[in-house]
Structure formats: structure tokens, C-alpha cells
Amino acid sequence: MVLNRIGDFGLVIGILIIFVEYRAVDYATVFAVTPILTNKVFSFLSFNFDLISIICFFLFIGAVGKSAQLGLHTWLPDAMEGPTPVSALIHAATMVTAGVFLIARTSPLFEYTSSMLSLVTVVGACTAFFAATVGLLQNDLKRVIAYSTCSQLGYMVFACGLSNYSVGVFHLVNHAFFKALLFLGAGSIIHAVADEQDMRKMGGLKKLVPFTYSMMAIGSLALIGFPFLTGFYSKDVILEVAYGKYTLEGHFSYILGTVGAFLTAFYSTRLVYLTFLCRPNGYKSVICKAYDSSYQICISLLLLVIPSVLIGFYAKDMIIGFGSDF
Amino acid sequence: MFTATENMNRVDSEFIFHIYKILPVILSLLGATLSFLFYSFGSGLLISYPILKYVTLVLRVAMTLADPYQFLEVIEEAQNLLAQPQRVPQVEAAAGAAQPQRVPEVEGVPQNEQLPEVEAAAGAAQPPRVPQDELLPGFEHVRQA
To answer: In this predicted model, what pLDDT tens digit does every residue of B86-120 receive, in sequence order?
Structure first.
């Protein structure tokens, strides 16, 4: 909660500076006036700051807090104490992506300050890498997925930092589907094994919950970026534009993003293996009673698995295609 | 969403080397494969004999290096080696030239019982002591010792 308040504080300060300097807070006015104010200096306590940079810095703090970027990220795994459907909705698809959306929506401000774009790129790339390394060593099923969310948010943020906002938003959309699928699948598993969340106490569930296994496998493959699944279309483009930027921060983010992709594949496969494929490690009384969830849950998983496979292919041209107005 | 013209690079990214395009996919597939193999056979590999043997060897080397008495022995041997003065080639040649002449065998006298005058001659023909200033450079501390 404290971390979110820090982010909120930054966002409020950014909005206040906008109001003081622009005398308005509506997007149209602010974006129209911004090109005129590119060289304006903001004075505070005898210190002079570039106005656009300082506004973007505080807006970015808000985005960091909300999107769980490096430094203000610890609230997201801790929030996994809540119910799994809440995690699927809020902590994967809607709320945490607000920071990425904020950066994309205020792109007319960020585009006039290259230093802040570099900062956004570096922070996003570090988050993508760092969260992947942490996810590698987690044993709680939901915390692995939470750190995976954190890592994927890093990809989105550094795509925005590379001025490819549409690519970041494309990954945001794709990620929402397969991450919600993974969270709901995780909830189904936890329900099946008597609320056990430790992966070390699972195993051998492949034959006991085959439907959930197939859903989780598809979600994990989409997260990994397996060719022609949803994650592949967006993550691949993000790393392409990172290298194609031909700048120091571009290559830095490409390297960290590529290593992060390797780590993502590693911990996703680890999750599937420890949960479904290895020998049963839980209590016999629990494992033997594991069963697939009711048809309501299965229907929701089915509804999510279809876009997790197809949305990347079908939405690619619409969102990031050349000449697209998105 | 707005992108400044100088920041547009989507077209440039289409023309990067193919290896940089497919490297993330390759690494992803590699990561998944390695993870599966590691968790399938990793525990067996960790306790298998070759790795244990290797680990034991490494541990032995590490313990040897960490043992202070081993170091003392090595240092002592090195000091002994350094304490023996090495001779320069000219001195060696001079020493060879000053070797005692082989005494012809005297009938009735065993080889190991040389005559007193012969022993005296052999003593006189001992190689001259190497002058201290002819020691190899770097061995001055030996002279001081």
C-alpha cells in the first residue's frame, strides 16, 4: 500500500505541475501546448528543471507504482494473497496495465523528452530481467505468475520507452488474455489440491486434472512466446524494435529482454513440470481427491484460451500494422 | 498515441539481421527445453558419480590450497631450492677444467683406498669457491644468508 501511495504521490505532483504551467488538465489542451513549452524551465527552490522532463518524471513514477516496475514492484506478489479471480482480473489484465496505458496516453509529452524516454526504457528492461530472475526461484504458484506479470509489464514499459507505444499496448492486450488464463488455471489447480499453493507439494496432476493441465500448458506456451501463439507476435516485435533502435538503451533493453525471454521460458516450464508432470509430492489424501473444476470454470478457461492462441495473429495488423491508425 | 518522426524505427527494425530476430525465439525454446531436462534428470545428474568425482577433486584441490601447512611445506621447499647457488657457465667450465686427474690404479691397492699423496693431489684440485659477486642476479639474499 505504501508503494502504491508513492506512485500516486508522483502522479499527483505531475498533474499539479501540469495544472500550474498549462492552466488545464485535459489532454487536448495539454498536448496542443506542449510543443510550445519544450524549452521552458521549471524553477523550484532555486533549481531549474526542464518542464516537460519533470512532468514526465513524476508521471512515470505514477506508472512505476501502478505497473509494479523495479523499485515499486513488491506490492504485486504480495497482493497474491487475495482470491485468484481477483488476481486474474486486477493483477494481470486491468489495473497493473494502467501504468503502461498512462505512458502510452501521455506519449505527446514523453516524445519531447529523450532523457525520460531513456529512463523509461532502462527501468522497463531492468524490470523485465529482474522479475524473471525472481520468478525463477519462487515456489508459490501464484507468486510465479505474479513475477511473470511484473516481467511482462517491463517489456511493455520498455516498448513505450522506445517510442513504440502501439507495440507496448499490443503486448498489453495479448498478455491480458493469456495471463488471465494462467491465473484462472492456477485457481483451478489450487482448488483441486485443497488450497495448496506450494508447487513443491503438487506434481502428478496431469492425469488427474487433464483439462486444467491443457489450459495451463497453452497459457504457458503463449507466455513463453512459442511461435504462432499470442505472446510470440508481441514479444518478438518488442525485441525487434529494441534492437532496431540502434541506441545504447535500445541494445541494452534487447539484451536484457532476450535473456528475460530465456528465463521466462525456464520458469514457465518449471511451473508446468512441478505442478503436473513430476511425481506426486503432496499428501496422498489430497492428490487422490484432485479433480477438474466445475463446468463454469472450464467454460471461462475455454473462453480465454481461444484469444490466447489467436488474438496475436488476428490483431497484429490492426494494432501494430504499418499504416494503422491505432 | 503520438510518435515523433525522429523516434520512428519500426521500418528500421524490419531490416535488422535475421539472427537478432530469431534469437529470442531460439532462447525461449532452449530455456523451455533446458528447464524440462533439468527438472526431469537434473536431480539424477547432480548425484551421479562423474559429477561427484569432479566435485570431490575440486574440493580436494581447494582444501589443499586452503591448508596452511601445505603452503608452509611448499614455501620451505622453494627456499631450499633457492638457497643452492646456481653457477654461471664460465664458473662451471672452470670447475670442469680443475677436476682432479684420474690416478692410475696401483697394483695391490684397492680403488677406494688411494694413496695419501694422491688424496692430497685430489684435495688440491678441488674446484675453486665461486666468488660471491659471480652469483646469478636475484640470488643476493642467498649470499646474505
So the answer is: 555 565 566 555 555 555 555 555 555 555 555 55
Whether A156 and A165 have beta carbons less than 8 Å apart is answered as no
Supply the DSSP symbol for B109: S
> What is the DSSP code string of A253-310?
HHHHHHHHHHHHHHHHHHHHIIIIIS---S-HHHHTT-----HHHHHHHHHHHHHHHH
Look-up of cell digits 694413496: B115
Smallest Cβ–Cβ distance between A278 and the set B9, B20, B39 belongs to B39
- Residues A281, A147 contacting (CB under 8 angstroms): no
Which residues in chain A are closer than 8 Å to B35, comparing Cβ atoms?
Answer: 265-270, 273
What pLDDT score was predicted for residue A270? 92
Residue in chain B lying closest to A162 (CA): B7
CB B29 within 8 A of CB A182: no
Cβ atoms < 10 Å from Cβ of A252: 17
Task: Please state the pTM of the whole predicted model.
Answer: 0.77
What are the chain B neighbours of A108 within 8 Å (beta carbons)? Answer: 2
Cβ-Cβ contacts under 8 Å, B19 against chain A: none
